[in-house]
Every structure is written in C-alpha cells, then in structure tokens.
Specification:
mainly alpha; two-stranded antiparallel sheet; 10 helices
Length: about 325
C-alpha cells in the first residue's frame, strides 16, 4: 500500500499501525493483567469468562483496524481515463467550446456513469475531471491530496489508519469504531464497581493491612479514565457516520452544499446494505462483503442528469475542477 503523506509526526504508514497496536496492547495488559490479576473481586470462574469475552472483542477490534488500514481502494476503471486530446488542452484554452466537447464525450459513453457538474446557471452539465490523475471522475470519487490519487466513493481521509475511508474499507472502519467503543464500555463498566468500592473503604487501613496495592489501583484508574474518554469520542463519531450511512451519504457529500445526486435507495436498511452487505449477521464481522464495484451507484430519478442538458458550459480552470475536494482531511476524525 502506498505510504500516507499526512502532515503528522509519524507519516510512515507501517510505523503508525505498530504504534496503535502497541497502544491496544497496553490497554489489554491494564485490563487483563492488572485489573483481573490484582484488583478484581470476582470469583476465578467469572474472571475467566470475563477474559474470554474481552479477548473476543479485542481481536475483533484489532482485525477491523488492520482490515481498514490495509484494504486498498480499487484502481480507477480504465474506461474513465481521459483521452489525450482533453488532457493536453492548456488551462487558458478550456473555454465553452472545450466543455461542450466534454459534454458530447459523456453523451457518447452511455455505458459509463460519470460524476457530473453544472455551470453557474445550472443549465448545462459536463463530466468532472482530475488533471493530476488524468481521468474523468467516477460518481462519488474525489481526489485526496494526502494520498495523491482519486479515491472511489471517498468518505474522508483518516489520520488514524493513515489512508482514506473508501468504498471497500468503509465497513471495516465502522466495524473498528463499533468494537473499539464496545471494548471501552465493557472495560469501564466492569472496572467502575471495583475502583469506587475501594475508594469508599479506608485506603490507609487497607495499605497498612497489605490488602491494597496503590500502584495497581492508579494504573487501573488511568486505564478506566482512558476508556471512558475514548468511549465518548468513538460513540459520538460513530453516531455521525451512521447518520450519514442511513441516508447513503458520505462525509464529503454531507458537507457539500452544491446540488448533488440523491443516492438514497429509499430505505435505511437498503442504504446500510450498500456498505455493510446484504447479510445482516455479518454487518459487524470484519469480512469483506460490500456489494459494490466502486463506480456504479443507483441514483434517485428526481436527481438524475438529463442527457439533453449536457452541452455547452461555462469556463472553469483546472484548479476549480478539483478545488472542492482536493483538501479533504476530515477535521472530526478520531
């Protein structure tokens, strides 16, 4: 996978994943070793059961994280490659005549679903294009300045996984948020009772009787604090992403005030299935079953582009053609 070019302290992609794995390992040891080994008041059988469930959730979290990070976006279909006659046109020569040629080209390719745009009067449409990638943009694709490529059905660029959330790893990313938040809630819920029961007791007396290890309590308390904070952040971000998914929108589309196609299939379940797959039992399993090729998406009839409207267009510069999505790192990412 190409390395991410984010402006971050550790831009090396594998190094960042190793850092995250080390962090999850620390949280694992705090819960499994420190809490269950030294502070838990549950019987041994219960502790074993708690640990088995913890291991299952932890493995699902790690698997989802790695799947989201290492699943590459599909390569842009060669059918979207711009003919050289368009690529070589200088910026100053991209006049109405040029955009009319683009419109005619789109009309001549009825088997290809283009990402269309209109000029200021909203009377004419032509296919959007990306000069750096030398392609016509497929529906819902955007050029990511960090990854330096066009990403099919791009949702946002995520610094956590050092790559974009796109058509083929969106499910894994949602799986990661779900299981990571579940892991935090599970740990915080179990630890809360023990931590605050100890606080209610005479700590100095327990220390004197050698029945209390202050260091272990402080380590566990720090882990509990981290779990609570992360749970709130993960759940909040997850609610936002799911609210986009039920209407079949991406993060970029929801923040775009321009007129755009309506990709909703009319049902929340059907919209969710476009990313999570048709088998509901596998929605939260990090298994690739997203039913899309990344380039073809049904559009509501009311928002379809009329081929008759694809004709002469206003002047647009190269910068304008990509300006709305070239810098798309999502500020609210986890």
């Amino acid at each position: 996978m190409p390395s991410c070019r984010c402006s971050c302290p550790y831009p090396n992609f594998p190094g960042r994943i190793i850092a995250w794995l080390c962090s999850f390992n620390v949280w694992y040891q705090i819960f499994a070793t420190v809490y269950l080994g030294f502070l838990s008041e549950f019987p041994t059988v219960v502790n074993v059961a708690v640990l088995v469930v913890w291991n299952g959730i932890w493995l699902l979290t790690i698997t989802s994280l790695l799947s989201a990070a290492f699943t590459d976006p599909v390569a842009i279909d060669p059918r979207y490659r711009m003919p050289e006659e368009f690529v070589e046109v200088p910026v100053e020569e991209r006049t109405k005549k040029f955009f009319k040629r683009l419109s005619r080209y789109a009309v001549s390719k009825p088997d290809i679903q283009f990402q269309m745009t209109d000029h200021s009067s909203r009377e004419f449409f032509y296919p959007r294009y990306c000069i750096p990638c030398k392609i016509f943009k497929p529906p819902r694709a955007h050029h990511c300045r960090q990854c330096q490529r066009c990403i099919p059905r791009m949702d946002h660029h995520c610094p956590v996984i050092a790559t974009c959330v796109h058509s083929h790893n969106h499910k894994f990313f949602l799986n990661f948020l779900f299981w990571a938040s579940f892991l935090c809630v599970y740990a915080a819920t179990l630890i809360t009772r023990t931590l605050f029961e100890i606080v209610d007791l005479d700590v100095e007396f327990l220390i004197a009787m050698e029945q209390f290890d202050l260091v272990m309590w402080l380590i566990t308390f720090s882990g509990w604090t981290n779990a609570v904070i992360c749970a709130i952040a993960l759940i909040g971000f997850q609610i936002y992403l799911w609210s986009m998914l039920v209407s079949n929108q991406t993060t970029l589309e929801s923040n775009d005030n321009k007129v755009k196609p309506d990709y909703s299939l009319g049902s929340r379940v059907k919209n969710i299935e476009t990313v999570m797959g048709y088998n509901k039992l596998l929605w939260f399993v990090p298994y690739q079953n997203t039913p899309t090729d990344g380039f073809t998406y049904p559009v509501a009839a009311s928002s379809e582009t009329n081929p008759d409207d694809m004709c002469e267009c206003e002047y647009e510069t190269e910068e304008d053609s990509c300006a709305d999505d070239s810098d798309n790192e999502y500020a609210h990412d986890v």
